[in-house]
Amino acid sequence: MSNRYARIAFSEAARERQRIAGSYRDYGAQLENGRDEPQELELRERGFIRAADSFFLGTTTPDGWPYIQHRGGPPGFVQVLDDRTIAFADLSGNQQYVTVGNLTTNDRVTLFFIDYPLRERLKLYGRARMVERADDPDLVDRVASAYTGAIQKIAERAILITVEATNWNCVKYIRPRFTKARLDEAVALERRTAATDHDRLTAEIDQLRRENEALRARLDEMAAR
């Protein structure tokens, strides 16, 4: 079992805080077990990433300042290429190129995926590699395939990330939020359920009505004798 996440995230300062708080047994002690090797994406993680319609990307400036950028798109805009590689298209934006500039000098990245309705979140450490459209337009188009029409063509580059480690966060303090698509799905399901219940109740009422009419006929027949 890999303890790569703990080796990346739990610095000596973090471990000392864990000892003071009494949580070292649950966290820092992970460094004492397992192997320091990159983690592979499990089935749950691959499905979670493929279903995501957004994530936050963290890089570091040459001066050491952290930088966070939001990325969003249709579900599937982050592709899982294999058990250790994910990719997404870098679309033309405001042309500040802070993330691109950071990756030019430091390939370390962290990604934060969160599903608000399910109250789940996944942290990922990795190393990024940029492939410019001029160097491999076919690859960029394949990575941008979740987008349609002109949007696909404004992808300037593909960013491929080799996964180093992942970690699931607890659900505590995640407030559920629902996109319009999720709400539409819930409403449609509720309508289908209501229609099914209506059909079932109508069938039961019809059956009871027939049974009642049969009983009335029998009573009328007995009264006529």
Question: Would you mind describing this structure in some detail?
Answer:
- By secondary structure, the chain is α+β, with helices and mostly antiparallel strands.
- The protein has seven helices and seven strands, in the order H-H-H-E-E-E-E-H-E-E-H-H-E-H.
- It has helices spanning 4-9, 12-21, 43-51, 98-105, 137-143, 150-153, 180-224; strands spanning 54-60, 66-72, 79-82, 85-91, 108-115, 120-132, 155-169.
- Strands 2-1-5-6-7-4-3 form a seven-stranded antiparallel sheet.
- A hairpin with a 5-residue loop joins strand 1 (54-60) and strand 2.
- The longest helix is centred in the last third of the chain and has 45 residues, at 180-224.
- The termini are far apart.
- The mean pLDDT is 89.
Quick synopsis:
This protein is of the alpha+beta class and 225 residues long.
Write the layout of secondary structure elements.
Elements: H1 4-9, H2 12-21, H3 43-51, E1 54-60, E2 66-72, E3 79-82, E4 85-91, H4 98-105, E5 108-115, E6 120-132, H5 137-143, H6 150-153, E7 155-169, H7 180-224
Antiparallel strand pairs: 1-2, 1-5, 3-4, 4-7, 5-6, 6-7
